[in-house]
Amino acid sequence: MLYAVLFALAGASALGAALVPRVVDKLPVNLPMTFLAAGVVLGLVPGLPSVDPLEHEAVTSHVTEIVVIISLMGAGLAIDRRVGWRRWASTWRLIAVAMPLTIALVAVTGSVLGGLPVAAAVLLGAALAPTDPVLASDVQVGEPADEEGTEDEVRFALTSEAGLNDGAAFPVVHLAVVLATAGATAGALGTWVLEDVLLRAVVGVAVGWVTGRVLGELFFRSSIPALRLADDVEGFTALAVTFLAYGLGELLHGYGFVAVFVAACAIRSAERSHGAHRVAHSFVEQIERMLTAWLLLLLGAALSDGLLDALTWQLALVGVLLVFVIRPLVGRLSLLGSPAGPRERWVIGIYGVRGIGSLFYLSWALGEAEFPGEELWAAVGFTVALSVLVHGATAAAVVGRLDAHRFQRARSRDLGEVAETHV
User: Fold this and answer.
1) Which among 203, 290, 207, 303 is positioned nearest to 253, based on CA atoms?
2) HSE, side-chain direction, 13 A CA sphere, residue 78
3) Residue 136 — very low, low, confident or very high, per pLDDT cuts 50/70/90?
4) Which sign does the torsion angle of CA 210, 133, 154, 286 carry?
5) What one-character DSSP code corresponds to residue 45?
6) Of 355, 220, 341, 344, nearest to 280 (Cα)?
């Protein structure tokens, strides 16, 4: 009977993932909010099995891992802009400035306000720092376009940041594990810098680039027609590339998250305007949406099934400060001098959505070392839920207003040029 109930819930939620975006299209509600709320209600139903990520640590880690890597492939395929130092100036600032500062500030507040040990505070900062590629769809670029220059700076910056900062935060998660197991010794920290910061990052980028370039040449320009899969593209090939890049990256001691996103960007660069990218992106997006619906149902059920029992007002305050103060200010300041305008900088800073990546990092780290798991899960679960609600309720309206302002400014500029022509 229980299995039948689970299958029915899985089918109903998958169907809902297709229907909800249509139903709530004109409302200040999105798919993550809807399924999180549904999960909270579901968790109150008597007779259903307990949803505790601490009891199902390995399952939680692997399921969230799969959702994140699939979303990274979708983000990489969607970006139209070529990789470059100036073209991606906003991205580099968010990764190199905003993310480390966010990690540091969350770690300090988690330790000072929340009373967490140093290693746990560092883990909390690393888990909550990345902008999530799964739940930030309202402020990310859409499907791949045939031409460059169609992306606005807000959507591009948040999409590219979400694609890169999951891998960029992983070294700090490793640092938290090192601090919890070996302590802050010179030998342990030196090994961490060499292996977890330098080696893994370089290998991840290299594996992703080589995988993407080789498969891109094969798919689009192979001399053997049967190997040019782009000519008769199947969407599931995007999943094949995702798992291949991730698996190779991990096997070679690199960051698989980085490998997946770089591979997606490399494949996109092989033939930028081909319709195969839209097919692959659409397939990945559908799989991502279905899996996200299931995960958010489970998270919502966990929230009402005791996940927040260990939440103190101090830990809750850390989440509130992150969502309303730390990320907006740090994001805004990191973009000074970037191509983004003043309004765009604030929107980029504010809408760093927390999400599934945070759940993965926490579950992975808890499997590697001893941390105060109940307190960390309570803090992360609360913060992700807060982000889903606040950002989900406002993102579409804010970005829509920004689009309208941008359109009006462009229209005024065009009218001014026409007037000068007739003078």
Assistant:
1) 203
2) 27
3) low
4) positive
5) S
6) 220
CA atoms within 13 A of residue 345's CA, in its CB half-sphere: 17
Q: With CA atoms as reference, report the closest residue to 349 among 103, 157, 219, 127.
A: 157
Residue 413 pLDDT: 59
Structure-token match 């968010």, residue found = 94
- Residues contacting residue 135 through CB under 8 Å, at least 6 positions apart: 32, 292, 353, 354, 355, 356, 387, 388, 391, 392
Nearest by Cα to 353 from 129, 131, 20, 103: 131
Note the Cα 42 to chain centre separation in Å: 25
Please, which residues have CB within 8 angstroms of residue 164's CB and are 6 or more apart in sequence?
A: 91, 95, 258, 261
pLDDT digits (tens, 9 = 90+) for 28-78: 777 888 889 889 998 888 877 778 898 888 889 999 999 999 989 988 888
Question: Is 0.70 topped by the overall pTM?
Answer: yes
Mean pLDDT of 146-165: 80
Indicate the residue type of 286: Q
* Mean pLDDT (whole number) for 95-119: 95
Structural domain boundaries of the chain?
58-422
In CATH, the number for domain 58-422 is: 1.20.1530.20
